[in-house]
């Protein structure tokens, strides 16, 4: 059984549908039985088990599902207790993409190994979209000297409220500030540094700028490179915004301001809009000390669809016993082919 926590949410409901489509058995878990039953009916999953609880960790420890997919967000706080509740033997998957939550989950590696459990953090476009390209470029090669990754998602907006889970992730990203790896260590950088304009393989263009996301950490872990830079198209490109970003990030470290910002952002109502570009792209450039450079791209459609597909594929593989014990980013747990099984195409230039 694969429990989907937050099953009424944007990603949770899609993951449930995709787990079922892959032959897995999703169990929809949420805080309100009526909303979960409604979601199940909308997904054509009316027969599946639903669980109403506001204490997911206690419920997991009691009922011992094979795999838990956490889509409730707030991963810096929710990931560790929920993952620990899966021990021993149960597996855990989340969609974190920030540098507070991911290191905390990865720090459970030894506990997970001892208990025979696999924990995967970053199972979405955020992290795997670029990590898979780095892993492919580095296969059977010595450790590179420098890696650059660029996350260029394209997402259709359904409308409706942004929601607290996503709002917490966005604010958490801003408060981390800018970071990069130099000499094997994570060092501060300016948020929005390294602005880039990409000529995409399909002829379109996209802009990105420096962001301290989980992609930075995953690229370093997958390559071992001492110097790593990560950019994202989600960091606004305009010069004025880039100047204001670090100031906003510093202010948002103040707890009451942060809570206020999360509440306001969660209540923002998005207007439905098609995705701005046909494709979502993950891009990586890997360089070695001998002057060799390799470049690769991951291409997929809507980044949200890819995210749901990655999480579902990861959960189903873990339920089949394909993971090895420990705590990992997705490509380190299941290889770059996970991204291909989830609908991505990786090409090496
Ligand atoms: N890595 C990536 O590429 C990627 C991509 C997309 C999303 N994400 C992340 O995935 C998370 C989910 O995103 P989403 O767009 O699906 O969010 P969403 O639509 O707001 O859904 C969140 C779900 O979690 C539930 N929830 C929220 N807070 C909770 C709490 N404290 N306790 C229990 N349940 C709670 C909500 O249930 P109720 O109905 O009870 O409110 C809802 O079902 C976010 O953190 C987002 O940043 C990552």
UniProtKB/TrEMBL annotation:
It comes from the Bacteria. Residues 2-120 form the Saccharopine dehydrogenase NADP binding domain. Signal peptide: none annotated. SUPFAM superfamilies: NAD(P)-binding Rossmann-fold domains (SSF51735). InterPro entries: NAD(P)-bd_dom_sf, Sacchrp_dh_NADP-bd. This is Short subunit dehydrogenase-like uncharacterized protein. It comes from Kribbella pratensis. The lineage of its organism: Bacteria, Bacillati, Actinomycetota, Actinomycetes, Propionibacteriales.
């Amino acid at each position: 059984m694969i429990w989907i926590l937050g099953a009424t949410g944007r990603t949770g409901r899609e993951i449930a549908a995709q787990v079922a489509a892959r032959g897995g058995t999703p169990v929809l878990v949420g805080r309100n039985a009526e909303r979960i039953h409604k979601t199940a009916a909308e997904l054509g999953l009316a027969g599946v088990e639903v669980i109403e609880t506001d204490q997911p960790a206690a419920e997991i420890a009691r009922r011992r599902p094979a795999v838990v997919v956490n889509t409730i967000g707030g991963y810096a706080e929710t990931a560790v207790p929920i993952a620990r509740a899966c021990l021993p033997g149960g597996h855990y998957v989340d969609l974190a993409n920030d540098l507070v939550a991911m290191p905390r989950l990865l720090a459970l590696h030894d506990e997970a190994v001892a208990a025979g459990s696999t924990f995967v953090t970053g199972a979405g476009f955020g992290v795997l979209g670029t990590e898979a390209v780095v892993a492919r470029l580095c296969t059977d090669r010595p450790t590179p000297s420098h890696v650059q990754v660029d996350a260029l998602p394209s997402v259709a907006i359904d409308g409706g409220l942004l929601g607290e889970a996503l709002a917490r992730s966005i604010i958490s990203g801003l408060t981390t500030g800018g970071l990069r790896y130099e000499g094997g260590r994570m060092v501060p950088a300016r948020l929005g540094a390294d602005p880039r304009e990409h000529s995409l393989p399909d002829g379109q263009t996209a802009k990105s700028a420096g962001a301290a996301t989980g992609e930075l950490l995953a690229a370093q872990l997958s390559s071992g490179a001492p110097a790593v830079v990560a950019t994202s198209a989600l960091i606004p490109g305009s010069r004025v915004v880039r100047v204001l970003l670090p100031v906003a990030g510093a202010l948002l470290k103040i707890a009451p301001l942060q809570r206020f910002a999360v509440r306001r952002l969660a209540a923002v109502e998005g207007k439905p809009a098609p995705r701005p570009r046909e494709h979502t792209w993950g891009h990586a450039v890997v360089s070695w000390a001998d002057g060799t450079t390799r470049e690769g791209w991951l291409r997929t459609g809507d980044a949200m669809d890819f995210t749901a597909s990655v999480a579902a594929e990861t959960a189903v593989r873990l339920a089949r016993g394909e993971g090895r014990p420990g705590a990992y980013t997705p490509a380190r747990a299941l290889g770059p082919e996970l991204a291909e099984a989830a609908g991505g195409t990786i090409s090496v230039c």
